[in-house]
Write a structure and sequence with these properties.
- The chain is elongated.
- With 367 residues, it is an alpha/beta fold.
- Strand 2, helix 2 and strand 3 form a beta-alpha-beta unit.
- Helices cover 36% and strands 20% of the residues.
Length: 367
């Protein structure tokens, strides 16, 4: 029997796609790459999503239809490809055009105070006159609404240049969005990675962030697909990694730094923050007790050749400020407030140094 494309299409018209009930030809799912070499037939079936649940069953049905209606001598098994259209990805450089610097706040593991550091760093930057936004990207443990005393806030929609955008909550001079605003605070968030990533993309691209000098992202602990989503979605200026001096935390911090500097992510690490560097009791402000080890973060930073942006002491007032929704950075004249003020100043120095280096590199390349 002579084979030709029309015979193949007639057989494929017998196969229906379960998602719509239409046959594959009517639904426009057969690509125009049908190839026939002797008895061997190959072609592609178009699916909208790479994780379409019907891919395997549709391919199997297509094979059966061709063998039944065209002839059993046709070589078709393994020659049908499932393809998805390329979806144009947003240009990270253009997604937040009014934001000057995007800083990822990360930690290798949970429990090192990353969110507390992110909140106080944001407030300290705002205290120094910078326009600041903070995205709580810790989908499964959103804590920023409580730390900013805006747990009851419900962001509303505003029209900006013809677009309906989410208006971030704001307190202490910091614009804030968190998944915590959109779910019951007593319920666990049971989302798969793709769903969490899509929610974060919406909080970035469909929000009225406006003009910002610094946009901080409080990432989930560890390394996950959410980290990759943020890197692919935004042109991140750099990352800061939070750790404690404890060996267990340092091992995970090392992995976090490796993730950012690896080829797949390639985000510069602006510095390391050693949190809970020492314990200082309120009644003895001059005393230091190295509960989690001494300068483990400093030694790791030196080993990996990244700057130490700050050492934050373990002080009761920092915990109380987070629980009460009043970050200690609001009081820059206290010991703890001063620590975060210095941290913010060093971060700014690193960002400006990086930006100047990039600018000089561009000038050299354009000559």
């Amino acid at each position: 029997m002579a084979l030709y494309p029309k015979l193949i299409l007639e057989a494929l018209a017998k196969v229906r796609y379960p998602g719509t009930g239409k046959d594959l030809v009517e639904a426009g799912m057969i690509d125009d790459d049908i190839r026939i070499e002797g008895n061997k037939v190959s072609f592609s079936i178009l699916f909208e999503k790479p994780n379409d649940p019907f891919i395997k069953s549709v391919i199997k049905a297509a094979e059966t239809a061709i063998l039944t209606y065209v002839g059993p001598e046709v070589e078709i098994k393994g020659n049908i490809r499932a393809v998805t259209p390329e979806v144009a990805k947003p240009d990270p450089d253009k997604l937040l055009p009014e934001v000057k610097n995007i800083i990822a706040v990360s930690s290798g593991k949970g429990g090192v105070g990353k969110s507390t550091v992110a909140a106080n760093l944001a407030v300290a930057l705002a205290q120094q006159g910078y326009r600041v936004g903070l995205l709580d990207a810790d989908i499964f443990g959103p804590s920023q609404p409580k730390m900013f005393q805006v747990e009851e806030a419900r962001p509303y929609m505003v029209e900006v240049n013809g677009r309906e955008l989410i208006q971030p909550a704001e307190n202490y001079g910091v614009k804030l969005l968190s998944i915590g605003f959109f779910v019951n605070k007593n319920d666990a968030v049971l989302w798969r990675g793709a769903m969490a990533s899509n929610a974060l993309k919406q909080l970035i691209s469909d929000a009225n962030w406006g003009e910002l000098d610094y946009f901080l992202i409080d990432l989930p602990p560890g390394t996950s697909d959410i980290h990759l989503t943020m890197v692919q979605t935004l042109a991140i200026t750099g990352a800061v990694v939070v750790t404690t001096p404890q060996e267990v935390a340092l091992a995970d911090a090392r992995k976090g730094i490796s993730m950012f500097t690896g080829d797949k992510v390639n985000v510069p690490v602006l510095g390391l923050i050693e949190n809970m560097a020492w314990f200082t009791p309120a009644e003895l402000p001059g005393n230091r007790y190295y509960i989690f080890g001494k300068e483990g973060g400093v030694k790791l930073a030196k080993e990996l050749d990244v700057p130490v942006l700050g050492q934050i002491p373990l002080v009761q007032s920092i915990r109380e400020g987070g629980d009460d929704g009043k970050p200690v950075a609001l009081n820059p004249d206290t010991i703890t407030g001063m620590a975060f003020r210095e941290l913010a100043a060093r971060l700014v120095e690193q960002v400006e140094y990086r930006n100047q280096h990039l600018e000089s590199t561009k000038r050299v390349q354009t000559k």
